[in-house]
Amino acid sequence: MTTMTTPAARSAAPASRPTDGDARAVGRWLAAWAVLVVVIILVGGATRLTESGLSITEWKPVSGVVPPVTDAQWAAAFEKYQRIPQYQRLNAGMSLDAFKAIYLWEFWHRIVARLAGLAFVLPLAWFALRRRIPAFARRRVALLLALLLAQAAMGWWMVSSGLSVRTEVSQYRLAAHLTLALVILALTVWTAADLLVGRRSPGAVSGGWRSRALPALLGLVFVTCGSGALVAGLRAGKVFNTFPLMGGRVVPSGYGQLAPWWRNLFENHAAVQFDHRVLAVTTFLAAVVLWAVLRRSANRRLARRMHLVLGAALLQLALGIATLLLGVPIALGVAHQGGAVLLLIAVLLAWHADGVPSPLPAGARGGAPDRDRVDVVPGVGRLPHRPPAAALTSR
Q1: How far apart are the first and last CA of the chain?
Q2: What is the DSSP code string of 143-203?
Q3: Does the pLDDT value for residue 6 go beyond 80?
Q4: 116 Cβ partners below 8 Å, 6+ apart?
Q5: Kind and range of the H or E element at 44?
Q6: Phi, psi dihedrals of residue 165, rounded to the nearest 5°
């Protein structure tokens, strides 16, 4: 028996597949959500610099969205804070008004994080139910959802480390919390770039050491950010506030005073600050060298993004030195963390551009090689142009 297909059925069938317009819509959502992730990172930095992270001693994902309102509720929250070592050893005698100030910093940090979760889950459900997410991106957004849940748990795991014995959170857990946030941001930005610009093509990637230089620089930025989290966790930024020397020396005294030796890398205030300085300067120099090499690349998109890398590196170096010399003021400390995020995004986009050919300028004819053209593939995005065999033989 022959099965008849109606015109309505034929027109409805392709609608179940993601189109290029769907890919761009998902990409715009992820790009906007990446901005929200950056905001969370900055608010988290401010929370750390204001010493507010331990002011809320409980994790209540649902009821915690409502802050204390009455005098009795504020008194109860303050009484809980008074039980932990941070109050008893560092803030004994703190007034209720001073407590309210640090409480609200941590409260809004948690609220912004919850809002970011909703801003991810609700659009994700909408796109998924309508099958508008391209196949290659489905696993990534699922992974992002899993990482978000892990990040929420890690946030409380970090806070809990400062509720007994210690007067601050563990620098190890702080570094893990920030690093995971940066991983989430990087995966989001990369996926958004794939959807909006086009996926990287192996044939378009520059060969030799250049193909490894940008990912190596990205790894260096990640390591430098992690070392910065150790500096923040130990408050090591206030130990030596001179540059470039530390206490009149290149390598500060007491660098290797802890045993075993590896503890100096994570627990020695002077060593942690010195290591962060070395990593930061190395990252800056590597960015400058790569800019000098790649700024004249035939890939115009890569060349433009290398200018962003250089600008972000210069800004971050200036912010880092100013933050250090001025004794880590809150505003500059937050700006310095924001500069690190900006540099991370710039390097990530430059690496992505290395494998995506530049589109032909509007009105260009003849002289531009076909390898610089891109084709739009529904549900996938933009891919390098592949001329038909007939076109090749006719030339």
Answers
A1: 50
A2: HHHHHHHHHHHHHHHHHHTTSSS-SS--HHHHHHHHHHHHHHHHHHHHHHHHHHT----GG
A3: no
A4: 33, 36, 37, 40, 148
A5: helix 20-49
A6: 70, -60
The per-residue pLDDT for range 164-202, each reduced to its tens digit, is 889 899 999 999 999 999 999 999 999 999 999 988 876
Q: Partners of 375 in the beta sheet? A: 383
Q: What residue spans of 197-329 are helical by DSSP H?
A: 210-234, 264-267, 269-294, 300-325
How far is the C-alpha of 71 from the C-alpha of 348, rounded, in Å?
A: 49
Is residue 335 a contact partner of residue 305, using CB atoms and an 8 Å limit? no
The radius of gyration computed from the CA coordinates of the chain, to the nearest angstrom, equals 25
Alpha-carbon distances, residue 162 vs 18, 84, 119, 150 (angstroms): 47, 8, 30, 19
Distance of CA 232 to the CA centre of its chain: 17
Q: Are 134 and 22 in contact (CB under 8 A)?
A: yes
- The pair of three-digit structure tokens given for residue 252, joined into one six-digit string: 């500060």
Per-residue pLDDT tens over the stretch 128-159: 999 999 999 999 999 999 999 999 999 999 99
Helices (H) and strands (E) in the chain, counts: 13, 2
Model confidence pLDDT, tens digit, residues 79-111: 999 999 999 999 999 999 999 999 999 999 999
Rounded Cα distance, 56 and 60, in Å? 10
The pTM (predicted TM-score) of the whole model is 0.85
Give which of 108, 77, 107, 82 is closest to 94, Cα–Cα.
Answer: 82
Cβ neighbours of residue 288 closer than 8 Å, sequence gap 6 or more: 310, 313
Q: Find out whether 345 and 189 touch, Cβ atoms under 8 Å.
A: yes
Between CA 195 and CA 204 the distance in angstroms is 17
Phi and psi angles of residue 382, each rounded to the nearest 5 degrees, phi first: -100, 130
The answer for residues whose C-beta is within 8 angstroms of residue 190's C-beta and 6 or more apart is: 348, 352
Interatomic CA distance for residues 182 and 176, integer angstroms:
10
Q: What are phi and psi of 200, to 5 degrees?
A: -65, 140
Buried b (16+ CB within 10 A) or exposed e, 72-106: eebeebbeebeebebbeeebeebeeeebbebbbbb
What DSSP character marks residue 360?
Answer: P
Alpha carbons 313 and 126: distance in angstroms, whole number: 38
Taking a C-beta distance cutoff of 8 angstroms, is the pair 44, 185 a contact?
Answer: no
Angle 171-196/330-353 helices, nearest 10 degrees?
40
